[in-house]
């Protein structure tokens, strides 16, 4: 079963221009069995779609999130069906806090594009470089991302092998030109978030990959000093601002057994 495990939709990610129905139709035409919505720090897109009650016999839409940590870049998070932690919609937790929140709720997480844009990728963050064994606490890595260069994806795969982590693939598409250009092919049926969690943890992944996006001039700016440190400063500032909002939720959190 072929899934796109990194999808941004209009209404959930402010930088996406694709409506959910358009995303689904393109993927169905390309032979995909499903998608994981991974909007930035938000479940709004998925929840709006779910409230409309739309279902497909041949296609599954699952609920995920791409979380912005304050010290380690972006992470794809998949929680069990029916579990929606408010903490995951308040950007700026540390990676250590994020791991605790996700695992306490029975979910899994993996670094998105770990060698991608410097501002948002784990391997360019001091926290991770100084403590690379933190990858032992993750459940998977994104081994293919359409929006990253082949070299970045190859390094991600090598890193996953180093820590014996399953690899996933996704398009990270924010517009229709790149929908379905990244995939993860599972050997077991996926009809729910729990199916997806179990399959990734058991590494029931036949293959992953796709087509990398062509080089664009804006990629130079994305990795510039100004863009990298500007985004990191913003993320850390937001993280500090939201400390009081997170505190009551973190205080109730129980560590996983």
By CATH's scheme, which homologous superfamily applies?
Metal-dependent hydrolases
Which architecture per CATH? Alpha-Beta Barrel
Q: How many domains would you count in the coordinates?
A: 1
Question: Separation of termini?
Answer: 32 Å
Strand arrangement in the largest pleated sheet: 7-6-5-4-3-2-1-8-9
Strand content: 15-25%
Summarize this structure as a short list of keywords or feature phrases.
single chain, 257 residues, TIM Barrel, 9-stranded mixed beta sheet, 33% helix
Written description of the protein model:
It is globular and about 45 Å long. 33% of the residues lie in helices and 19% in strands. The protein contains nine helices and nine strands. Strands 7-6-5-4-3-2-1-8-9 form a nine-stranded mixed β-sheet. The chain has a single domain (2-251), classed as TIM Barrel (Alpha-Beta Barrel), CATH 3.20.20.140. The two termini are 32 Å apart. The protein is of the alpha/beta class and 257 residues long. Strand 6, helix 5 (150-162) and strand 7 (167-170) form a beta-alpha-beta unit.
What's the structural blueprint in terms of helices and strands?
Blueprint: E1 2-7, H1 20-29, E2 34-37, H2 44-51, E3 60-68, E4 74-78, H3 95-104, E5 108-111, H4 126-130, E6 140-145, H5 150-162, E7 167-170, E8 182-186, H6 193-201, E9 205-210, H7 218-222, H8 225-241, H9 243-251
Parallel strand pairs: 1-2, 2-3, 5-6, 6-7
Antiparallel strand pairs: 1-8, 3-4, 4-5, 8-9
């Amino acid at each position: 079963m072929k899934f796109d495990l990194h999808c941004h939709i209009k209404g959930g990610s402010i930088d996406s221009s694709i409506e959910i129905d358009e995303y689904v139709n393109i993927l169905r035409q390309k032979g995909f069995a499903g998608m994981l919505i991974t909007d930035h720090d938000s479940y709004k897109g998925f929840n709006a779609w779910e409230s409309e009650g739309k279902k497909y016999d041949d296609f599954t839409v699952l609920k995920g999130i791409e979380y912005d940590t304050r010290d380690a870049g972006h992470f794809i998070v998949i929680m069990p069906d029916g579990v929606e932690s408010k903490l995951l919609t308040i950007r700026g937790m540390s990676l250590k806090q994020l791991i605790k929140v996700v695992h306490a709720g029975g979910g899994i997480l993996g670094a998105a594009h770990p060698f991608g844009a410097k501002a948002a990728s784990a391997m360019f963050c001091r926290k991770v470089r100084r403590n690379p064994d933190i990858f032992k606490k993750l459940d998977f890595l994104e081994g293919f991302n359409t929006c990253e260069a082949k070299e970045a994806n190859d390094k991600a795969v090598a890193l996953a092998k180093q820590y014996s982590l399953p690899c996933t693939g996704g398009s990270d598409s924010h517009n229709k030109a790149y929908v379905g250009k990244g995939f993860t092919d599972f050997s077991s049926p996926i009809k729910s978030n729990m199916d997806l969690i179990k399959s990734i943890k058991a590494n029931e992944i036949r293959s992953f990959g796709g087509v990398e996006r062509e080089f664009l001039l804006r990629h130079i700016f994305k990795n510039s000093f100004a863009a990298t440190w500007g985004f990191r400063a913003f993320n850390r500032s937001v993280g500090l601002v939201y400390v009081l909002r997170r505190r009551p939720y973190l205080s109730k959190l129980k560590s996983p057994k």
